[in-house]
Amino acid sequence: MIEMKLVEGVYLVGSGRNGIFLTDELDCNCYLVEFEGKLALFDCGIGIRPELLEAEIQRDGFRMEDISYLFLTHCHGDHIGAAAYLQREYGIKVVVPRTEAEAFARGDEAAMGLDVARDAGFYPPDYHLAACRGDETAVPGIWEKDGIHMELFDASGHSIGGICYYGTVKGRRFFIGGDLVMMGGKISFQLIPGADIHAYARCVREVMDLKVDLFLPGHGLFQLQDGGMQLRMAGEAFEHLYIPA
Ligand SMILES: [Fe+2]
């Protein structure tokens, strides 16, 4: 639809109606990050109309074939639905949070909370997830591969066990946390399998003091300077025993 370069090296290439409505209405925010010599996509949307994601990536001046990795934040359908397609069509290496990798490989919709979310109307009644066996798994700690250096954090609580990605692109520190924290320092807690408010609080408090420029959440608006304030707000609420929802 439009070129969506956010800052040097970061492009918003997918976003649904809970964002800026760039691609399919049910897509999460999907970010393309241009590391030194390597391209990586973070989350890939629901997979109903992946051609819209491809068109955005091409409009931003990139070729699908040049994307090395797809890093997934957590295994909810609106974040991972296009993974199998992108892996098959373009050989993009899919990196799945380790805790959720087996459920995604089996297409276990119950374990990933997709069946109850579909019943609740979040997904179309005929929507089914395309299962995908990841090429690699993501675990908390340092990711150092192919010139991509990031620190990965546990993002349990929103889902069974997601991952947040913290790194640097063209001199700016980014935080891609999926649905862990949204703008306004709010969390996204749903009554679905895998959700755990105590785990959620622990994970948010673990990242609340990170130095972050680019706050790039899975839905809604993003923040391009001092983005760490969003994490701090959520963390401080938990510290005061409130749920920042
Ligand atoms: Fe989610």
UniProtKB/TrEMBL annotation:
Segments forming domain Metallo-beta-lactamase: 27-219
Top-level lineage group: Bacteria
PANTHER family assigned: METALLO-BETA-LACTAMASE DOMAIN-CONTAINING (PTHR42951)
Protein name, UniProt field: Glyoxylase, beta-lactamase superfamily II
Species this chain originates from: Lactonifactor longoviformis DSM 17459
